[in-house]
Design brief:
Layout lengths: L5 H9 L5 E4 L13 E4 L6 E5 L4 E5 L4 H9 L3 E2 L8 H4 L7 H6 L7 H4 L6 E7 L5 E5 L11 H5 L8 E8 L1 E2 L3 E8 L3 H13 L4 E7 L1 H4 L4 E8 L1 H14 L6 E4 L2 H12 L10 E7 L4 H10 L4 E5 L4 E6 L12 E7 L2 H6 L8 H14 L12
Parallel strand pairs: 1-2
Antiparallel strand pairs: 3-4, 4-8, 5-9, 6-7, 6-8, 10-12, 10-13, 11-12, 14-16, 14-17, 15-16
């Protein structure tokens, strides 16, 4: 099924006689396998309204992210949350869509400073499991349902409703950037350096650490600064002084090289050509190095740290349960075979009170239980 309009989407869902597998661009098959008829949003595409002066954008959910980025770049603007492209990591084809980004709340390295996808989401329109068309936020400010649907839909992965339209706040593209690189730090010292940089007044917009098992060379700790040229130069120099006790600081100013470096961090490029399951952990930044040590003891072949250590990626053995006992955070199985995704919890199990709320929301918006049933466990 491939609706070309919101009304057609509504009719398809209302008339469905069984489970539906919701698909955007088909590039992010994360979650437990869904046994249902495929419902693709790829043809529900296009820009509804873009006002560069107001920094607002309204698009249909099936619009490719690349198309949006080109549109914004022509006006010197960007999506602030730097959404990850999962295709290389998951071995998928197709084009990532903006609805898929919202449904999974996909955010990249800049989240550590700018925030997540949901923080820039102004409004949503979607079709719930009964076929009703609902809207909230953006140009329609009254919340008639009593729920903050904008926040609910970000990260709901198509289990509460099928997005048809989303609106965002966008931001100007900064004219200059610099990356400070520290080489050879172990993971504990790298965590200290990243946290020190983020605590500083120098507005770091990216803080990542690539251990030696990823780079094949010395471990690399990367810190990104963005803004106006004079400000970037000043802040890079001062931050370099601050980090002097961690070793030699190298500064990269080449725009193309910086973009390449951070797209590789964003998309976890180091794992692309390596077999094994991929896990993603969200923890306190100061807990990252200790978590890394636990994951290595469990068989992790390689690690990558982002968000100053608050986001840890692990390449582990196929089929292994890589959830450390007593984990103070969230573990998500991003890449694995269908059998593993069916057997292991893909997402961090919810505490009983949260689970009760989640089920009540699903009962409210999808009473028939037809939208991506079982995907989130």
């Amino acid at each position: 099924m491939e609706p070309v309009s919101e009304s057609e989407l509504s009719k398809m869902i209302a008339g469905a006689d069984g489970p539906l597998q919701i698909i955007g661009g088909g590039t992010r098959p994360v979650g437990r396998p869904v046994d249902g008829a495929a419902l693709s949003l790829a043809k529900l595409s296009g820009v509804v309204e873009y006002e560069p002066g107001a920094l607002t954008l309204v698009v249909k959910a099936g619009t490719p992210v690349a198309e949006i980025e080109r549109l914004l770049a022509a006006e010197g603007q960007r999506l602030p949350f730097e959404p990850m492209d999962h295709r290389g990591l998951l071995g998928t084809k197709g084009a990532p869509t903006i609805g898929g980004v919202v449904a999974a709340n996909v955010s990249g390295p800049r989240r550590v400073q700018a925030g997540a996808c949901r923080d820039y989401l102004l409004g949503v329109k979607f079709v719930d499991g009964t076929g009703r068309i609902l809207k909230n936020g953006g140009r329609v400010m009254k919340n008639v349902t009593g729920y903050d649907l904008v926040k609910l839909m970000a990260g709901s992965r198509g289990t509460l409703g099928v997005l048809s339209e989303v609106s965002f706040k966008v931001l100007p593209e900064p004219p200059a950037a610099a990356v400070l690189r520290l080489g050879g730090l172990d993971e504990a010292r790298a965590g200290e350096a990243m946290c020190a940089a983020l605590r500083s007044p120098f507005e770091v917009t990216g803080a990542a650490h690539l251990p030696a098992d990823i780079t094949g060379e010395n471990a690399a700790t990367l810190l990104r600064i963005e803004g106006f040229e004079a400000s970037v130069s000043y802040r890079a120099e001062r931050l370099g002084d601050l980090l002097d006790g961690f070793g030699k600081v190298e500064v990269e100013r080449d725009e193309a090289q910086i973009a390449q470096t951070w797209s590789a961090v964003r998309d976890v490029k180091a794992f692309h050509d390596h077999a094994g399951d991929v896990w993603r952990y969200s923890v306190r930044p100061t807990a990252g190095p200790a978590l890394g040590a636990s994951l290595r003891a469990m068989g992790a072949q390689a690690l990558q740290y982002d968000w100053s250590g608050g986001l840890v990626w692990a390449l582990g053995p196929e089929g292994a349960d890589m959830r450390p006992e007593g984990l103070d955070g969230h573990a998500t199985l991003i890449r694995a075979g269908k059998e593993t995704r069916a057997r292991l919890p893909v997402f961090q199990p919810e505490a009983a009170p949260i689970q009760k709320i989640s089920q009540a929301l699903r009962d409210r918006f999808d009473p028939r239980g037809i939208l991506n049933p079982g995907l989130m466990g």
